[in-house]
Design goal:
The chain has 341 residues and is α/β, with parallel strands linked by helices. Helix content is 30%, strand content 25%. The strands form 4 sheets. Strands 7-6-5-8-9-12 form a 6-stranded mixed beta sheet, sandwiched between helices. The chain has a 4-stranded antiparallel beta sheet with strand order 4-13-1-15. A 3-stranded antiparallel beta sheet has the order 3-2-14. Strand 5, helix 2 and strand 6 form a beta-alpha-beta unit. Helix 2 runs antiparallel to helix 3, helix 2 packs across helix 7 and helix 4 runs parallel beside helix 5.
Length: 341
Amino acid sequence: MWQRLHLDFAFLFFSATVAGQDQPCEVDVPLNVVLPDAALVRKISPDGFMARQGGELLTIRSVSVDTAPRRVVLVAENGKDVNPAARKVEASVLEAMVTTARAEDSFAMLTSGGRRKELRFGTPRDALLSDIHELSSPSAGKSQGNSALDAVLEAAGWLQPSQPGDSILLLTMGLEPGGGSGYGKARKTLTAAGIRLFGFQLGRLYLGIYSVGLAPSPGGPIGFPTGVLLPSARIDPNRETIFDLGDETGGFFVEENTEGDAQKRYQLTDELLRVLNKRAGQLYKAIVEYYGIRLAAAPKGFAVDLTDALRQQLPAARVNYPREMPRCSGGSGVNPSPDRP
């Protein structure tokens, strides 16, 4: 009798395991459709999207519009490399965003470089706005040595346990090319937590890394025998920019080079500042409202785009979504949506 009960239990356990394996690992992909001026494309019908992995179509279970309350960490560079124009942009765009934000959204703020400012979730908005205003001028006091990506990683920790729609808004002069392991660590951390990264780059964008070395001569009519080492130079594309990190996590960045260049001195006018405040508003709208694309699965290398017919109407639109989705949790097989406070 005990043997039979044991066998029956084992059969039930095996059946439950098989049933659990048959359940699809559904994922909800947050997605924005963005025009070149950072305006969002709204009211796209569910049949306006398609998903693929290579040449194979993926099943889209449903399409919804998610406008639930959001948590946003504002991360601003505050070090000596932030020039006066960049400081003015930081203070202005953050003040405009927080002042017009929805009451149901929660904000925190953290700085990198310069004097540390740390305001956790639950800080009254008046106090937050006061510290934002102080970003417009350098602060006296001990400077911290953390980089922009260090601050992003710390901010990601504030968003644990994660909730759908969690985002970080970063204001930075830009990432130094070849900056070590920080980029990869930030990408992995944000991807695993489902955190999207948005913001402004306020310095020059380094498109490539110039290097000089020696390379063997291929030989030829110039008279050098094959194999002789000759000076050579090359430019390797910089694929670890803040724009790349935004794309990979499902966010996007606005570029405003306050450093200027050799041909033209940068001038921050009131009209330009008004335009940048408007761009900040578009970033905020992308954070608080996105399409939820529910897929039966999101395998490595999956892609979501507009259908061919809609793409013809919106040829310049970018479809922003995380390039990798967090793994499904055990249990129901569907990515959980944690309760909000």
